[in-house]
Amino acid sequence: SATLGQHAAARGKYFGSATDNPELTDAPYVSILSSEFNQITPGNTMKWQFTEPQQGQFSYGQADTVVSLARSNNQSVRGHTLVWHSQYPGWVDSVPASQLLGVMRNHVTNVAGHFQGQVIHWDVVNEAFEENGTRRQSVFQRNIGDSYIAEAFRAARAADPTAKLYYNDYNIEGIGAKSDAVYAMVQQFKAQGVPIDGVGMQAHLILGQVPSSMQQNIQRFAALGVDVAITELDIRMNLPRDTTKDTQQANDYRAVVNACLAVTRCVGITVWDYTDKYSWIPSVFPGQGAALPYDENLNKKPAYTAIHDALAGT
Length: 314
Ligand code: G3I
Description:
It is an enzyme of class 3 (hydrolase). The chain contains twelve helices and ten strands. It has helices at about 5-10, 25-35, 50, 60-70, 95-115, 140-145, 150-160, 175-190, 215-225, 245-260, 280-285, 300-310; strands spanning about 15-20, 40, 75-85, 120-125, 165-170, 200, 205, 225-240, 265-270, 290.
């Protein structure tokens, strides 16, 4: 039977997975990663902490490893992420406020330049809004101001004119204060000619809580003239798993896939790694997990079948 990636491609979309370098020593894991998906996102090693650990010293070895693996498997790569309030090196906090815009531009220019032609998308700015729709008070917001997002997009476009440039965030899958704020920003960027091409909805979801407005929300962003990608999908549950929860999770995954399939400009879906063996959830939400379509032993769960059948249209 065809893979998730093949079924997605037949619908004009991709179905991908995040991965991380330490996992690439796990041969059975890599075998599925390499065959089942037609898109890869490096889960950590393109972040500022990894790519510019000391000011002006760029380091691409680990990210290059992921990119070349993807290339050897004919998988596209989403770049993640250029400017984020987390996982940046400590020296950034010591940059004088008046110099931070130049430092940010230099980072974006170098990283997007290095991967020019090798990534289909960049998550240019990640998680810049609070739940109530105000700007998160990150080091970039405090020291550069509201304009830092537009400036990051302009620098990314100049460095890599072929990559589609995305704003990426969580809890913007449904209509609400946070997605309204992102919507207003995209609308403003379009009016002002700021080069934005897409919105990434991370979709770190909770069992039984796929937002009912998800398709409508994807549609309203598409209507602004941007693409939408589901960029970090997982659906966590209270442990332990049981049959009832697995069935609910399968239904939830199906709902997300169908919401994307219903909108032409929803270009693809990425799970935030594909197996419970390497999920970030249990370490951050104790007592929760089992969020992905393969279990810890790399066996397919009901969620896998639901995704497969939704993509296949059966
Ligand atoms: O690299 C060190 C390693 O040397 C050390 O032994 C180990 C001990 O804990 O930690 C390793 O660093 C971890 C890093 O992942 C690399 O594995 C950090 O502790 C850990 O906090 C970090 O977590 C990452 C997290 O972002 C940080 O916020 C997750 O792997 C990654 O999946 C997660 O991804 C984010 C997206 O980028 C943005 N959206 C939310 C998503 C989930 O948090």
